[in-house]
Design a protein that fits this description.
The protein has 366 residues and is mainly α. It folds into three domains: 30-136; 139-217 and 303-364, no CATH class; 224-297, no CATH class. It contains 16 helices and six strands. The chain has helices at residues 30-45, 50-73, 83-97, 102-117, 121-133, 139-153, 161-175, 186-193, 210-216, 228-241, 268-276, 280-292, 300-310, 314-323, 336-346, 358-364; strands at 2-9, 17-24, 197-200, 249-251, 259-261, 331-334. The strands form three sheets. It has a two-stranded antiparallel ribbon with strand order 1-2. Strands 3-6 form a two-stranded antiparallel sheet. Strands 4-5 form a two-stranded antiparallel ribbon. A hairpin with a 7-residue loop joins strand 4 (249-251) and strand 5. The longest helix has 24 residues, at 50-73.
Amino acid sequence: MWKGKQRQSAGNDSTQIQTQTLVVVQGVTEERAAEIAEITARKVASEFTADARSAAQARIGSFDQQLVAEFATKGLLETFRDPGFQILLNKAQMQAAATENEADHELLTKLLAERASDQRKPIHLAVTRAAEVIDSIDETTLAGMTLLWYSLDTFSASTDPLQSLIGREGNYHDLLNAGPLPKGTAWLDDLDLLDLISVDHSQARTMKPLEDLTIDRRPGLFSRGLNEDEANEMRRRLDALSEGLASLVMPHSLAPGYFRINAASLGDHREIAERKGLSSGQTKLLEKIFEDCSCGTVDPDVKKKAIDFIEGLPNYSKIRTWFNGFNSQVAIRITAPGIAIAYSNARRFNSLAGLDKLSNLLTRRP
């Protein structure tokens, strides 16, 4: 790519002459990115004795090839210019040298790609810490943390209750390929030592069963529903607020003959109000409609139907049995580096379509 600069000069009664200077703007190519990686790799290799240097160089070379190819595919090669990224690359290469496991190299690659995709500090801090501990996590523990994160911190993009559960079933199928599931709770303590999760063993705080976590966090999908007369009244109230809002009323797939508001929770009214440009007063009226439609309350009968449906989902049922084997013994919070590792590892097996970007997941965490 080039940009042209023009200069004009002319004296009195003279002919004006126009000259043009070409300024070449060269982007980072795959070849240049590989050169930068090789330069930083030399520094890493120099840290090892002659006995270990050959193995370290081979492992780093394998990792660098994956990294450059991934960044080229995602259009991230310009990141190699960034001094901050080169510092992180140096640390990642050190970790790559410590393991010959290709899965570890792939995970490091995914982590660095997430870091390159967003320039905000929260993701920089999370990815930097995550890259430092990857070689300390075995395959079984990594699989457990990935499924733990997916179960605790993610929601289906679907606003239909059955489709939401079916979507999780498909994702669980893919994520079970991450490796065998860990048993007991010792693996949780290992992750706690690495500051990837925070574990509370006191009986004062424990986690709900998996099916309750899935359902109770999205009460609007599992609300009691509206009969036809109630649904028509809600359509009238919604249309009075803003044209087209009546379309929020939809059939309830877990309560045949009934309807519900197309929202996962009571708080969803704020996003809808903002999108529609509603005033403060109109927003309060919309919230009242959501309350009247029980968007914040799970109906026991609907919940039972949902659990019956879950029991027919083999992958979900497998994760449910595993999760419910330790949920009553501990309370768990996944830290930012833990989220970064679990998210990046999950992306190795599933695109996680509909899930927010890692940077947004990190900034919204409690």
